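WP5 quarterly update. Target: Fatty acid desaturase domain-containing protein. Source organism: Anisodus tanguticus. Length: 441 aa.
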Amino acid sequence: MACSVADSGFLFLVPNRRPIHSTRINQLASSGSYCLKWESLPQISSKKKCCLISSRKRNVIQAVAVPIAPSPLDSAEDRKQLSGKYGFRQIGEPLPDNVIMRDITETLPKKVFEIDDGKALKSVLISVTSYTLGLFMIARAPWYLLPLAWAWTGTAVTGFFVIGHDCAHKSFSKNKLLEDIVGTLAFLPLIYPYEPWRFKHDRHHAKTNMLHEDTAWQPVWKEEFDSVPALRKAIVYGYGPFRPWMSIAHWWLCHFNLKKFRPNEINRVKISLGCVFAFVAISWPLIIWKTGIIGWIKFWLMPWLGYHFWMSTFTMVHHTAPHIPFKNSDEWNAAQAQLNGTVHCDYPSWIEILCHDINVHIPHHISPRIPSYNLRAAHESLQQNWGKYLNEASWNWRLMKTILTICHVYDKEQNYVPFDEVAPEEAQPITFLKKVMPDYA
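Structure tokens (predicted):
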């Protein structure tokens, strides 16, 4: 296509002998040229040789054929390289745009949706027994073995959370009143109000990895990061070395403020808050009376911090990676977000047992109605039918290092830009993590 500006102030566009529908005319603001697509130009008869478009300025427009760069996820070789770089076992290929959630759920066997009260009771017994054992270990262990006892007990009490999590999704028991009672009780040792968490978590499932809407992790916005210089260091620490405990901030900021809930949710929220406050008012003084402040730290605070480590780690590993995008609502695709945007991660067996397979997370996002004790069977089905689209990993140092040192500030093209590129002078904690964290997968 030849382009020129005549002295009369009109722009003459003369098409080549063959239309080039893939041609793009790049806009370069500094040079005053404009971005046009051949398809967007007025259609003219093939007998005409040119068209006239009024132009107020004499700006020279150069037509340049710009190839569209393929996504690095389109190539199997590129995905393999990214898998090794990020600590994944497999990075799934992009799910076609025409696939909808129903296409995926219909491939799951019906048995994975079946609720079994016997299996539900078994999960309760596992959590109660392992938590009781953990408290016994804390009471008997010498000081140098206390970290191991805290790690075990914190993981065991995370199982309580998963039980309440199933109750919130109505996948724990056929008796729905029993689900609300068990869910509320399971959350009490964590000082977590059940109903507020349930309402927020439902929105996470409905808007997974949607910008502004997902109630779990959100990337940092550069505009907000730049607008609050006094808080930059806190944000860097929060999304860097302290990220495995950032669920504490989420717990406190999102679940105790009545203004964050809809009017029809308020009564149930108040009931849950009342239960939590009553539990604190009774249990904490008893613990302190029997064991002192040091006992409260040993028996409650340290396991609670262990629980939040897993709460934060599971959540960020499930949905955070350099290749997994957050999208605006007008671009968001439910099937892509739930299947392509969720990560299956294997952990040591004892962690998976105590946490009731919450790490088998992709089927849970395909349908939250699948009970935790059926997640493995559902995942096997997904592997058979949709295996090439799945993101899978084993928990490792490189995976954690990738999340903690790269997945920071939102960028539409790159998904994430690390802090040390956005604000190098503020990013010493990230630089430190890059140096000290092991890099093996």
